[in-house]
Amino acid sequence: MPGNFWKCVSCVKMEYNVEEGRLPREFIEYDFAEDAMDYETQLAEARDIKFTQTLTEPLCIGSHIICTGTPTENLPWFAINIGCGNEDSERADIAVHFNVRLPQCYVVRNTRIHDKWGSEETTAYRLFPFKLNRPFTVEVLVDEKETLWAVDGEHYCSYAHRNPSPLTATWIQVTGIRDAVLKIQKTDLYPTTGPPIFEIPLRPSISHPRNEDEPIWRPNVIAKLSNGITEGHQVVIYGRLRPTLHSFAVDLMDVAREWPRANILAHANLRAHADSQLTRQLVVLNARLGAWGPERRQRTARLVPATHTTLRIVRGSGEWLFYADDVLIGELEFRASPNGVKALRIRGDLYPEEIFLCPSSTSPVQEK
């Protein structure tokens, strides 16, 4: 799309000095109909640029698809499709449609059966990772109940199997990328090109300053706790909350990896989007030991978007205690031996700046 069409209202006001309720002459004379026609032409061109690989054997659990390519300025979107039937037909069934829309900066996932699309999914664990003229690597991992999608080595989203399932697919197709390359194989690990996994450092107290050799933490991080969390100790996470706070999750796991799936001995999920008009945010506590157990739900958190916060997970005598800015927001009884904790994972709208272990004896505590 031409740049003018995609400018936000604030940008238009700054560039043209627009008063509220008025538009500049240049903007009034802009031919939106012609622009929309250009966009439809680009979409048609993108559909005509396809690379299809026929599957010689069905996809199965552990099937690993790697797609590389470079988005270009004259093609506003591209898609990776896993489907069945006649791949040259516009009515072929598509089990998974991964549609990257660069002008809008989001990715749509969907399924098409009998020429009808289902409901779209757009939420993701990361900010939009694609850029024009920059090569990408997308990894797709087929699991029992869903596909997992990683971009440039970092997990981006998951998509639950619908009807048809990708396990019945006969082809994989990339549209809108001129230099697309596909590789299909089996894997024992996902993602295969991820960043290094760091050990969480130990500090003598919560007030001790950061050591110079501590890692620089990334969003959606997985980190090691090789020696676990001993009783009377805690994991401290200091980080920034996203301005449009939606949700985030913190997991204590038995192994530091995304897939094959680790057991989650303690899971804390803050859902700021659920009844967001209420004064307290929803906290969901659980554990996944092969399957999810019963949830504990409580509206106990008062986190402020676009600010820094300190989360603490304390190992007690028989439970995990979760604190946000020194306020207790939940307790979860041990559902497996706490000695099994060997890793920490953070997902979503909490961007960590410091993560460390320390004794919990000197940390302040407030009432709910």
From TrEMBL:
InterPro entries: ConA-like_dom_sf (IPR013320), Galectin-like (IPR044156), Galectin_CRD (IPR001079). GO terms for molecular function: carbohydrate binding; galactoside binding. Keywords: Lectin. SMART domains: Gal-bind_lectin, GLECT. Residues 51-190, 221-358 form the Galectin domain. SUPFAM superfamilies: Concanavalin A-like lectins/glucanases (SSF49899). PROSITE patterns: GALECTIN. PANTHER family: 32 KDA BETA-GALACTOSIDE-BINDING LECTIN LEC-3 (PTHR11346:SF176), GALECTIN (PTHR11346). This is Galectin.
